[in-house]
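Bumping my old thread because nobody answered last time. Still need a sequence for this structure:
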């Protein structure tokens, strides 16, 4: 009998044979196998021809193998014509047709039958292979995945096919899985070709950005054989992934010399030169590659060089050559589209790429480029539609989401852009571009929110952006928003970090100065402003730093220096605005300080300058200037003007004033007039609800009123009233040397001279008038002219007091009376309680 390859028949024959051997002798005579149908006979002959063809192919006899495959194909076609539903015959036909590379025939004959038998691996294997060879990957991959899942050694090549596709689709994880499975299933006789599989494994690990695994795979591929250009190129890619770009470039430069006829090292090296911006060297390698052979890859590279040289027309010509050499090549089509786009021929680029898509282009890059060209042409809706297709094609890649983000970014749709870039980070958490563009979109939305006074929302966006993109620019934006919203402590933290980042400039130090100033650290603010000025040589920028330093000096009490800076703001418009906004305020502040020191004339000069500068629409500042002017009038004894000015300044009550400021001011004016009782009454009213910082000032005014009351009583001869007032003043300020001195004067007038003299001697180092009084006592009461002259000499040596001229006259006369001159004597009227001009 001739052997049969039909599995069901072999199984049924074996079962019949088993039953025959186990039954009685008559059973053998009774069994007769049914005669084979014509279709079965043709199918069996086809299988025999297929076996012979494979044997001839194994021996290397291509001609005989092709004849046998054609004979097998003819027999299977005839059989299938009689039994169209025969799975075994269809599988044989697919094997023969694939061997003859007639993949269209395989698809046409097997596809309908496979649709009826979707679980039949004998059909799935040849059909999936035919799809794959025809580059119909969307149909091939699901079928081949089904075959691979069965994990049968006869289908080993399927794992290789799938790995190749996943590498093409940039899916490194799946490619690694298939290649590792191939190595586990492959028979020992194929182990000699493992270097090729390890090469592919290395490329898959590169896609996964797993440098150690990629290096190990390429080293395995290289082990035990002469240096291989592909493996060495892979190792160069590993070095590049590890950030060792100079080493990678050096390796490629060596490979170009060692393998002068190898194309890939030249192409990879040229690509590296392009990435580094070294276009001349890239051009040299590209031209050498074209000279080596006019291939699609060589013209594609030369076209990219021309694009880098800003020669899009010449680039287009090179890319057109790519398509002449390999019509329909997706990379060529994409490149032509980019060249057209670079020439602003957007409509042509769109039409070209749309045609490529319609012709069956399923490449991610093709769709991505089509969408990007639509975006640059202003067709944003179409760009979004195309890029959503990219997301559907590669849902586990960030590419589609990044492109959608770019579409929405281009139209200012910040919410959608932020959502898109966030989705990109979800699928690829370490995608650097996604982090950068998400940060930029957040920064743009923050700018819009700040423009509508949504400062908290703006700060929230910028905090997130700064976390994603720890750069000087993001830190500066966040710091500025925090300053605008008066969050000075937070702004200081951000800017103190920002000034340490690479690329920090004078502006970051300027913002740090304002943040420190707002948080109450004027000394540190001045240091930051100083550093800001030292970090630039531009006059405008130095002027801005100087204006900030002036504000810090004001807080440090260095008002004169601040006024000088603000009066000479420099050429910067920003600095001029700072000066315009702050110089009047600083001058008013200095005027108040001069008043506190008793220099009403200097205070008036500053207030005159404020009048010349003007206060603009700043009503509160204008009222403060009026308030200060009223106080100078009180110091000058112009009490009516003072009272009128206070009324204008404090009606209605401005923000800088407290509810009792009017009462306190009026009390002060009355005090300066010598109207103690009404002044004390107003002060008592104000003291019922003191504001922060006021109790000390109120205590000082209370003491001043008591001293004034004591002085008035002393001048009128009412020592009891003067003593009472002075003791009350001493209770308020027990360490006040002047009050102690004046109380001693009262004691002296009341006859307690010993106590008075003891007090004056004790206080003489700090109260100059005590020496004057010691001299008066020595001359008037004890008639000791020498002591008097000596005491008055000490008084005059202490400084120019208001009675210096008179005391000098007294001293000179005494000296004359006692042999030092001809002048006649003079008797002082009595001790002096206080020195007032």
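Sorry it took so long. Here it is:
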């Amino acid at each position: 009998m001739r052997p049969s390859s039909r599995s069901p028949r072999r199984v049924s024959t074996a079962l019949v044979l088993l039953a025959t051997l186990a039954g009685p002798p008559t059973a053998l005579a009774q069994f007769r196998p049914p005669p084979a149908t014509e279709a079965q006979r043709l199918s069996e002959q086809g299988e025999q021809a297929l076996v012979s063809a494979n044997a001839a192919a194994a021996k290397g006899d291509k001609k005989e193998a092709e004849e046998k495959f054609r004979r097998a194909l003819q027999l299977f076609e005839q059989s299938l014509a009689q039994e169209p539903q025969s799975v075994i015959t269809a599988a044989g036909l697919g094997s023969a047709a694939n061997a003859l590379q007639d993949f269209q025939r395989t698809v046409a004959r097997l596809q309908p039958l496979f649709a009826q038998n979707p679980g039949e691996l004998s059909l799935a294997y040849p059909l999936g292979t035919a799809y794959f060879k025809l580059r119909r990957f969307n149909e091939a991959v699901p079928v081949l995945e089904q075959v691979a899942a069965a994990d049968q050694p006869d289908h080993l090549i399927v794992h290789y096919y799938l790995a190749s596709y996943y590498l093409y689709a940039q899916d490194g994880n799946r490619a690694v899985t298939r290649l590792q499975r191939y190595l586990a299933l492959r028979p020992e006789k194929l182990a000699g070709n493992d270097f090729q599989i390890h090469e592919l494994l290395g490329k898959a690990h590169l896609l996964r950005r797993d440098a150690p695994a990629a290096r190990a795979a390429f080293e395995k591929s290289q082990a035990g054989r002469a240096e291989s250009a592909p493996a060495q190129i892979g190792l160069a890619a590993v070095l590049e992934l590890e950030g060792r770009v100079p080493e990678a470039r050096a390796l490629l430069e060596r490979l170009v010399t060692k393998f002068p006829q190898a194309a890939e090292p030249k192409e990879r090296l040229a690509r590296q030169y392009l990435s580094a911006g070294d276009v001349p060297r890239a051009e040299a390698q590209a031209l050498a590659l074209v000279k080596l052979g006019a291939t699609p890859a060589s013209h594609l590279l030369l076209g990219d060089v021309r694009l880098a040289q800003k020669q899009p027309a010449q680039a287009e010509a090179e890319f057109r050559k790519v398509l002449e050499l390999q019509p329909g090549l997706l990379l060529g089509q994409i490149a032509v589209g980019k060249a057209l786009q670079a020439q602003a021929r957007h409509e042509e680029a769109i039409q070209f790429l749309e045609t490529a898509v319609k012709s069956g282009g399923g490449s991610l890059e093709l769709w991505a480029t089509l969408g990007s060209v639509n975006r640059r042409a202003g067709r944003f809706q179409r760009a979004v539609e195309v890029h959503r297709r990219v997301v559907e094609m590669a849902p586990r890649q960030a590419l589609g989401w990044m492109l959608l983000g770019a579409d929405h970014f281009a139209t200012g749709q910040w919410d959608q852009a932020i959502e898109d870039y966030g989705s990109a980070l979800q699928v690829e958490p370490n995608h650097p571009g996604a982090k950068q563009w998400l940060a930029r979109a957040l920064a743009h939305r923050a700018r819009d929110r700040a423009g509508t006074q949504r400062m908290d929302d703006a700060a929230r966006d910028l905090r997130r952006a700064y976390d994603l993109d720890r750069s000087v620019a993001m830190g500066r934006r966040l710091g500025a928003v925090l300053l605008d919203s008066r969050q000075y402590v937070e702004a200081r933290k951000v800017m103190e970090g920002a000034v340490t980042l690479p690329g920090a400039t004078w502006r970051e130090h300027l913002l740090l100065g304002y943040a420190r100033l707002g948080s109450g650290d004027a000394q540190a603010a001045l240091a930051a402003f100083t550093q800001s000025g030292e970090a630039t040589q531009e006059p405008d920028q130095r002027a801005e730093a100087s204006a900030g330093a002036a504000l810090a000096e004001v807080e440090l009490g260095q008002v004169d220096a601040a006024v000088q800076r603000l009066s000479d703001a420099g050429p910067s418009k920003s600095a001029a605005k700072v000066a315009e906004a702050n110089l009047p305020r600083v001058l008013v502040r200095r005027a108040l300080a001069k008043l506190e020191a008793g220099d009403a004339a200097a205070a008036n000069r500053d207030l005159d300058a404020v009048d010349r500068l003007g206060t603009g629409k700043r009503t509160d500042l204008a009222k403060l200037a009026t308030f200060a002017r009223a106080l100078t009038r009180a110091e000058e004894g112009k009490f009516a003007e003072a009272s009128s000015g206070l009324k204008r300044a404090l009606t209605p009550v401005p923000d800088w004033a407290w509810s009792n400021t009017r009462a306190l001011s009026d009390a002060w004016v009355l005090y300066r007039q010598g109207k103690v009782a009404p002044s004390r009454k107003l002060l008592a009213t104000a003291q019922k609800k003191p504001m922060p910082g006021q109790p000390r000032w109120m205590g000082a005014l209370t003491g001043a009123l008591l001293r004034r009351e004591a002085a008035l009583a002393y001048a009128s001869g009412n020592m009891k009233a003067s003593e009472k007032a002075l003791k009350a003043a001493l209770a308020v300020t027990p360490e006040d040397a002047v009050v102690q001195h004046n109380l001693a004067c009262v004691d002296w007038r009341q006859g307690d001279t010993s106590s008075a003299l003891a007090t004056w001697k004790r206080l003489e180092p700090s109260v100059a008038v005590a020496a004057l009084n010691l001299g008066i006592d020595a001359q008037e009461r004890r008639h000791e002219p020498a002591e008097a002259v000596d005491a008055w000499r000490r008084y005059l040596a202490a400084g120019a007091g208001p009675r210096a001229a008179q005391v000098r006259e007294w001293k000179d006369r005494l000296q004359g009376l006692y042999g030092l001159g001809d002048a006649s004597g003079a008797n002082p009227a009595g001790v002096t309680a206080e020195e007032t001009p």
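The domain at 725-820 is CATH 1.25.40.10 (Serine Threonine Protein Phosphatase 5, Tetratricopeptide repeat). Let me know if any region looks off to you.
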